[in-house]
Amino acid sequence: MKIGVYPGSFDPFTIGHLDVLKNAAGLFDTVFVAVLNNNAKSPVFSVDDRVEMIDRMIETEGLTNVRSGSFSGLLVDYAKQIGAQYLIRGLRAITDFDYEFQIDAVNRHLNPDIRTVYFMANPAHSFLSSSSVREIGEMGGSIEGLVPACNYEYILERLARQK
Ligand code: ADP
Predict the structure, then answer these.
(1) Whose CA is nearest to atom 16 of ligand 1?
(2) How far apart are CA 32 and CA 7, in angstroms?
(3) pLDDT at 60 (0 to 100)
(4) Distance 22 CA to ligand 1 centre (A)
(5) Residue 159's beta-bridge partner residues?
(6) 49 CB contacts (<8 Å, ≥6 apart)?
(7) pLDDT tens-digit series, residues 100-140
(8) CA distance 68 to 34
(9) Is residue 129 in contact with ligand 1, taking CB distance under 6 Å?
(10) Cα–Cα distance between 111 and 103 in angstroms, integer?
(11) Among 60, 61, 55, which residue's Cα sits nearest to residue 34?
(12) Which of 11, 89, 101, 117, when mutated, tests ligand 1's pocket best, judged by the most ligand atoms within 8 Å of its CB?
């Protein structure tokens, strides 16, 4: 069984994330979308909210081999705990590469048996980030088409309250 973990802040989960997830779901037997529980990042959406939105998206998209979860502490420890041999990340620009290059070295040091698989962003999503969704939403702009449709209303309403 090839099991992958797609970790991230997912604050909130965007259609850029969905594209990476669909690619991974086609490659692995099971994929866990794992929400990082790190309050130091001052997330807008709580971990429970983010997991709930991801669950709704999994259900709506019919991604039968995808599960959700959350973790705090070391990602490689979480991966080991759920039996995953692969980490999944998306690459948008060279800045992502720089960051991922460093994280990969650290993860290899911590657990040489776990490998990371990268998917290039769909060019249509290469400028899409959770932070841009938050900014647009907080300023009253349209985030339609930037987040999964099943979560659109919820995110919009929550961001409007954030102003
Ligand atoms: P993190 O805080 O761990 O970077 P994010 O939620 O911002 O968490 O992103 C999770 C992963 O998804 C990262 O590997 C990131 O590069 C990737 N990602 C984010 N947005 C996109 C996008 N639009 N297209 C492809 N990959 C993306």
Answers:
(1) 90
(2) 8
(3) 98
(4) 14
(5) none
(6) 158
(7) 999 999 999 999 999 999 999 999 999 999 999 999 999 99
(8) 6
(9) yes
(10) 12
(11) 55
(12) 89
Q: Is the CB of 128 under 6 A from ligand 1?
A: yes
Any atom of ligand 1 within 6 Å of the Cβ of 96? yes
What Å distances lie between residue 80 and 83, 142, 156, CA to CA?
A: 5, 40, 36
Ligand 1, from 44, 92, 104, 118: best to mutate by most atoms within 8 Å of Cβ?
Answer: 92
Report pLDDT for 163: 67
pLDDT the model gives residue 93: 87
Tokens 């290059």, located at residue: 101
Give the tens place of pLDDT for each residue, 19-29: 999 999 999 99
Would the pTM count as exceeding 0.90? yes
Give the per-residue pLDDT at 94: 86
Query: Residue of the nearest CA to atom 4 in ligand 1?
Result: 8
User: With 0-12 CB in 10 A as exposed, 13-18 as middle and 19+ as buried, what is 83?
Assistant: exposed
Domains of the chain: 3-124 (3.40.50.620)
Amino acid (1-letter code) at residue 79: A
Residue linked to tokens 């429970």: 48
pLDDT, mean over the chain? 95
Given this model, what pLDDT does residue 38 score? 86
